[in-house]
């Protein structure tokens, strides 16, 4: 049956994604900010998924990398006039170093599975407190980017340009994560996720590959941090360094399906517009009602589909196939 | 700096530490029997504190009176939550369980925001603004009573864990779940009761220390983080370690903010955690 397919199976999600990604360009301009936010979270979820999903290491420290990206490029722009187009790679380098160090720190000993989550959440909190109190980093007031208004300085007059920029980020990240997933590295990472002892026993250099996954994930997240800083034109700890943004990233990824290529794309793509819609419908009433309903939705999804919406879809598909009578012609 | 000030800070730190120890102990209990890392731990305690606020404002019932009632309420809530929500998700793995509790953080923070608003709230009790003066020490009564109750409960829980059948079952499951199941221990029932007791302790602790805290919707995550740090420093799943770790963190935080100011004081627990992980990664009282 598979042989009769029009296109290779891997192409269909890309076509669907491009169709969805083009929609904001056709809709009224009031949607563009929501579209940018959605794509930013798609990007951050895909980045988190490299270490949190594919490699199965539950990292809650990605606010460190987001902040590393945002603050490095912003400080370089303020003090040395370096364009964020270059600063973003400096930020990615800083984040990669932090990520590899954190991974090394946590994975040197075979600690229980969830201690990594504890180490990273503690370091994230430490980072948040540090940034909030260091004056050079703007402390809790934050830093405002110098207004230059040119594309050379990663500043655009039109929000649609920002949308295109983050879309390019997303396409690059998904392509990288798809390649990684099917490559030998991805196989190693998934082996580590599914059974670390067995992977170690057959000779997978576990520590090295965990550090690699963390490095890639950190670098990608930092690039997203620079984008977010440029889009908002300022950086401050509550937006860039608090644990709440990591919790959101993790929940969106999990609701999609962590550990797959398209799960972290589907999660935020459905949830952020849904959340904005709820805010629009209920926002005028009590503050926080839409977030409460939103949170309950997340919990319900995790309760009934711990492997995410894509996992539920997959199970439904298998059940449907199993229920169909076997046709004579399908036998060789 | 005079010795009296240092002594004062140390005593206060030990008192906060006793409270931290109890929070961490109940987290260790929940973690031990099910492998569930409960990121919503502090939020349940925040919920109990808001409950004490409602009791005071609406019915003029003092927080110390409501605490045992809260224990019962949270015990039942814990068992219901475990049976209906946590247990099915834990079947899919401890990672899914941790993710579920992150979702619960989101729900509870916003539930508090919707019902009580985002303002800072202080809840007065009969002991508010009263101090016990034992020269050279000045101790606020709410902290003294709160920490004494926390210490009594911690010791009581420890005795239960070490001396009763239920405690032996909990420890057996914590050490080796499969072996415990083969010995005929009803794993799911012990887990549900342990989860209930864990939340019940939070329900009790919240009201008795409510006078020491300013209530905000986001206070839960900070409490969770302190409990996590204490749990790791003591050694994951180590009950005695959680008690010792609580005292260490309480004193370090108190002395830190006295000597270096509030922000650095707040950073010290996290820094201690990083150092423990660097040099004693299985915790101060952990094996290996």
Please tell me about this protein's structure.
The complex is a heterodimer of chains A (332) and B (288). By secondary structure, chain A is an all-alpha fold. Chain A has a domain of 231 residues. Helices cover 72% and strands 1% of the residues of chain A. Chain A contains 14 helices and two strands, in the order αααααβααααβααααα. Chain A has a two-stranded antiparallel ribbon. The radius of gyration of chain A is 21 Å and the shape is globular. Chain B has 288 residues and is mainly alpha-helical. Chain B has one domain. In chain B, 76% of the residues lie in helices and 3% in strands. Chain B has eleven helices and two strands. In chain B, strands 1-2 form a two-stranded antiparallel ribbon. In chain B, strand 1 and strand 2 form a beta hairpin. In chain B, helix 1 packs parallel to helix 5, helix 2 packs antiparallel against helix 3 and helix 5 packs across helix 6. The longest helix of chain B has 32 residues. Chain B is globular and about 60 Å long. The N and C termini of chain B lie far apart (40 Å). The model of chain B has no long low-confidence stretch (mean pLDDT 87). At the A-B interface, helix 5, helix 11 and helix 13 of A face helix 3, helix 4, helix 9 and helix 11 of B.
Keywords:
heterodimer, A: 332 residues, mainly alpha, two-stranded antiparallel ribbon, 14 helices, 1% strand, B: 288 residues
* Number of domains as seen in the coordinates of chain B: 1
DSSP helical segment count of chain A: 14
Number of helices of chain B: 11
**Percent of sequence in beta strands of chain A:** under 5%
Mean pLDDT of chain A: 86
Average of per-residue pLDDT values of chain B:
87
Distance between the termini of chain A: 11 Å
How many beta-strand elements of chain A? 2
Helix and strand pattern of chain B: HHHHEEHHHHHHH
Rg of Cα set of chain A:
21 Å
Roughly how many Å apart are the termini of chain B? 40 Å
Looking across the biggest beta sheet of chain A, what order are the strands in?
A: 1-2
Which pair has the most extensive contact? Answer: A-B, 43 and 44 residues
Described by the principal axes of the CA atoms, the overall outline of chain B is globular
Cα-based radius of gyration of chain B, to the nearest Å: 19 Å
Overall geometry of chain A comes to globular
Amount of helix of chain B: over 70%
The largest β sheet of chain A comes out as:
2 strands, antiparallel
């Amino acid at each position: 049956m598979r042989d009769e397919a029009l296109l290779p199976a891997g192409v269909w999600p890309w076509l669907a994604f491009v169709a969805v990604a083009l929609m904001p360009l056709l809709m009224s301009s009031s949607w563009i900010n929501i579209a940018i936010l959605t794509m930013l979270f798609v990007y951050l979820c895909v980045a988190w998924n490299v270490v949190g999903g594919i490699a199965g290491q539950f990292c809650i420290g990605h606010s460190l990398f987001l902040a590393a990206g945002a603050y490095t490029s912003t400080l370089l722009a303020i003090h040395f006039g370096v364009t964020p187009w270059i600063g973003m790679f400096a930020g990615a380098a800083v984040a990669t170093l932090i990520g590899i160090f954190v991974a090394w720190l946590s994975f040197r000993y075979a600690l229980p599975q969830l201690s990594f989550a504890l180490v990273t959440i503690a370091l994230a909190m430490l980072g948040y407190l540090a940034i909030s109190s260091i004056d050079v980093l703007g402390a809790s007031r934050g830093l405002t980017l110098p207004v230059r208004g040119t594309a050379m300085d990663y500043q655009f007059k039109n929000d649609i340009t920002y949308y295109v920029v983050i879309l390019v980020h997303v396409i690059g990240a998904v392509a990288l994560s798809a390649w990684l997933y099917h490559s030998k590295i991805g196989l190693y990472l998934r082996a580590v996720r599914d059974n670390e002892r067995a992977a170690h026993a057959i000779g997978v250099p576990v520590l090295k590959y965990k550090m690699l996954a963390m490095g890639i994930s950190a670098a990608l997240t930092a690039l997203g941090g620079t984008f977010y800083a440029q889009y908002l034109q300022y950086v401050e700890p509550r937006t860039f360094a608090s644990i709440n943004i990591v919790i959101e990233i993790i929940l969106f990824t999990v609701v999609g399906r962590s550990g797959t290529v398209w799960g972290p794309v589907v999660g935020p793509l459905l949830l952020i517009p849904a959340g904005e819609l709820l805010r629009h419908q209920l926002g005028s009433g009590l503050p926080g009602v839409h977030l409460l309903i939103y949170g309950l939705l997340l919990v319900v999804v995790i309760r009934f589909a711990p492997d995410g919406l894509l996992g539920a879809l997959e199970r439904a598909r298998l059940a449907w196939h199993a229920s169909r009578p076997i046709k004579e012609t399908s036998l060789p | 700096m005079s010795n009296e000030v240092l002594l004062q800070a140390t005593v206060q730190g030990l008192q906060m530490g006793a409270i931290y120890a109890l929070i961490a102990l109940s987290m260790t209990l929940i973690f031990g029997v099910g492998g569930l890392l409960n990121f919503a731990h502090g939020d349940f305690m925040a919920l109990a504190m808001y409950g004490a606020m409602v009791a005071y404002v609406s019915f003029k019932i003092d927080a110390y009176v409501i605490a045992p009632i809260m224990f019962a309420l949270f015990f039942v809530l814990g068992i219901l939550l475990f049976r209906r929500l946590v247990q099915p998700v834990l079947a899919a793995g401890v990672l899914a369980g941790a993710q579920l509790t992150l979702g619960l953080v989101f729900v509870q923070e916003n539930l508090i925001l919707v019902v009580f608003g985002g303002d800072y709230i202080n809840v007065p009790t009969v002991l508010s603004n009263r101090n016990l003066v034992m020269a050279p020490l000045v101790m606020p009564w709410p902290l003294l009573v709160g920490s004494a109750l926390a210490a009594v409960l911690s010791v009581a829980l420890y005795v239960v864990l070490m001396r009763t059948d239920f405690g032996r079952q909990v420890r057996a499951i914590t050490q080796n779940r499969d072996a415990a199941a083969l010995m005929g221990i009803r794993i799911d029932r012990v887990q549900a009761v342990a989860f209930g007791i864990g939340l019940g302790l939070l329900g009790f602790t919240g009201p008795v220390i409510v006078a020491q805290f300013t209530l905000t919707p986001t206070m839960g995550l900070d409490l969770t983080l302190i409990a996590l740090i204490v749990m790791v420093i003591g050694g994951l799943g180590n009950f005695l370690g959680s008690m010792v770790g609580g005292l260490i963190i309480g004193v370090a935080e108190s002395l830190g903010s006295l000597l270096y100011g509030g922000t650095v004081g707040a950073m010290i627990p996290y820094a201690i955690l990083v150092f423990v992980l660097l040099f004693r990664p299985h915790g101060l009282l952990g094996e290996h």
